[in-house]
Automatic annotation (TrEMBL):
<feature type="domain" description="Aconitase/3-isopropylmalate dehydratase large subunit alpha/beta/alpha">
    <location>
        <begin position="40"/>
        <end position="477"/>
    </location>
</feature>
<keyword id="KW-0456">Lyase</keyword>
<dbReference type="GO" id="GO:0003994">
    <property type="term" value="F:aconitate hydratase activity"/>
</dbReference>
<keyword id="KW-0408">Iron</keyword>
<dbReference type="InterPro" id="IPR001030">
    <property type="entry name" value="Acoase/IPM_deHydtase_lsu_aba"/>
</dbReference>
<keyword id="KW-0809">Transit peptide</keyword>
<dbReference type="InterPro" id="IPR000573">
    <property type="entry name" value="AconitaseA/IPMdHydase_ssu_swvl"/>
</dbReference>
<comment type="pathway">
    <text>Carbohydrate metabolism; tricarboxylic acid cycle; isocitrate from oxaloacetate: step 2/2.</text>
</comment>
<dbReference type="Pfam" id="PF00694">
    <property type="entry name" value="Aconitase_C"/>
</dbReference>
<comment type="similarity">
    <text>Belongs to the aconitase/IPM isomerase family.</text>
</comment>
<dbReference type="GO" id="GO:0051539">
    <property type="term" value="F:4 iron, 4 sulfur cluster binding"/>
</dbReference>
<keyword id="KW-0816">Tricarboxylic acid cycle</keyword>
<dbReference type="GO" id="GO:0005829">
    <property type="term" value="C:cytosol"/>
</dbReference>
<dbReference type="InterPro" id="IPR015931">
    <property type="entry name" value="Acnase/IPM_dHydase_lsu_aba_1/3"/>
</dbReference>
<dbReference type="InterPro" id="IPR050926">
    <property type="entry name" value="Aconitase/IPM_isomerase"/>
</dbReference>
<dbReference type="InterPro" id="IPR018136">
    <property type="entry name" value="Aconitase_4Fe-4S_BS"/>
</dbReference>
<dbReference type="InterPro" id="IPR015928">
    <property type="entry name" value="Aconitase/3IPM_dehydase_swvl"/>
</dbReference>
Amino acid sequence: MAYDIDMIKKVYSHMAERVNTAREVVGKPLTLSEKILYSHLWDGQATEAYKRGKDYVEFSPDRIACQDATAQMALLQFMQAGKKKVAVPTTVHCDHLIQAKMGAAIDLQSANKSSSEVFDFLESVSNKYGIGFWKPGAGIIHQVVLENYAFPGGMMIGTDSHTVNAGGLGMVAIGVGGADAVDVMAGMPWELKFPKLIGVKLTGKLSGWTAPKDVILKVAGILTVKGGTGAIIEYFGEGARSMSCTGKGTICNMGAEVGATTSTFGYDDSMERYLKATNREDVANAANEVREHLTGDDEVYANPEQYFDEVIEINLSELKPHLNGPFTPDLATPISEMGSKAKEHDWPINVDWGLIGSCTNSSYEDLTRAASIAKQAVDKKVKAKSDFGINPGSEQIRFTAERDGLLQIFEDLDATIFTNACGPCIGQWDRSDRKGEEKNTIVHSFNRNFSKRADGNPNTHAFVGSPEMVAAIAISGRLDFDPTRDKLMNEDGEEVMLDEPQGIELPTKGFAVEDAGYIAPKEDGSSVEVKVAEDSERLQLLTPFEPWDGKNLTGAKLLIKAHGKCTTDHISMAGPWLRYRGHLDNISNNCLIGAVNAFNMKTNFVKNQLTGEYDGVPAVQREYKKEGIPTVVVGDHNYGEGSSREHAAMEPRHLGVKVVLVKSFARIHETNLKKQGMLGLTFANENDYELIQEDDTFNFVDLEDFAPDKPLTIEIVHADGSKDTIKANHTYNAPQIEWYKHGSALNLIKKQNAA
């Protein structure tokens, strides 16, 4: 039986009424996304038609999921909210703090030793507040959620940007910062700007070497890393119905790389099959009773241009396999063109590693398709030229794959089977084959390939592909290998070709597992003690941020003017820094160390206006804080792209940064800044970015009149005494301005709970 089945049945019990009411209010047929959004309004029934991309709306999500790296800060914040138990079903998944190095058993043992303090904290705080706990080794959060918690028509938020993976089971699942999750845990509404809608019509059917991953690789090439910002991507058509549930999950998962709020598919037979295969026939039966409300209306899909803000059409029968990268997930290249493109750009041709897994591609079907290629290599006596690493998505996947002989096939190619965890995908990889920063190439089935992402080396060229394509390229050892036409030389000196991959959607013997890794919380956790040692370097109880004094901000110094791409990885790096995710002061020592200083094109090297000397960003900012001097960070387009990690907002806030002024924001990061009581502003005129000089001082002229839809005026004083006055836009509504006034959203929640 499914977890929280009563909650799911309750959602379905009022879905028909709420959808029908919303259809009347909106006055037209509804997309699936609209049905889910309108049926999860905080106030219940729809009373008005919301303007896409403009109106802020309060929602009531059904559940929350947190991964261990972000859960620490989220739960440290929740501990301040004054609640005895979470208000909605919530889970914590320990998947980020396990480093891939030697193999599953040794790596898991090492993680349990090195991060025992954090795991013990998360288990105890979960037990106290009624939160389900998935222990280290249980699996990657999004695969575990898909197998156990996702359900068609539901709404879920999670403290990880790839929460969107659950769209593969017909949810509206959205990545948020921990402060957003705390609101919902505390029984408060969750606010979101009503999304725009992008429809992707899929015709035809996938075949041969083309996989579901290639759909989103193609979409990423079309939309770019910011083309989906503020929008839900809804997939539909015969092509959508022809794909497996986990294939749909892959597509939704990587929708985060185009900035989409989330992605989703309508409920269909593949989802029903998946629910039943994962022991949730009760959910399937309940969903079948409201099936018509779990997909878009027929009129919508018949005439999508009338109902979506943008429509993309892809013929799956004509879609070719792709590799995307390096350094950005939207640089899409058909595999047939990779050879010439690599030569043109001087990308290293030899491939050192092929990595299969991550929350994007670690399902049973993914492993079978990759294993079908690996088995051919073994049978045809082709020795793999690259190293192999495999991360199964969950203990259930791993156990079943081992039972069915899939893991042995990879091991026959000398692959390393890593823990059921994120591993190299998030930089948790102790890569022993390279030292220093040598130029090299890896291929993987992950979702992100930013510079330094996997191994910390800025010269590692990482390319994203499907598991079967990664397997083929790793076996060949060459980036320019096209398995649809190229041959390989085997150990007998014979030329052989790899046959097309063969996959198994669901295990014919069913899924199996001995210990899935789940620990249920106590019904009454009031007696559970949560301990945080005062001298801990991993965990630190939080001190509330100071509220705004109501005055204009003056005399603020420029901390850094970031050049080009500045993702959350640049603002708050992962990798070895993951160990400090529960200790705000310690992790703040990585604040903006990856951002490129526009004045010298170096990282972690900025001018201290107090001394005239150059130093690391955190060191300079701590000097400003010590002297009580406010500071401003200036950035380019899509600032804060990438992970949902709120540390990228909390660290500057903790160190005394008051304002982030950029050309444009990634959605989650902008919200995180607001939640932490910072000013997140955009240039009214993008060209004003060029006016910012290294020794600038900022005076806010009319912050005292901070109000919705009213731009702010900033006087910029340059070192020579000259001045420029610019306008800065913002998207704060009245409640969000209250967050700013109180110093953070959490401060406001505490005040309301105490009232």
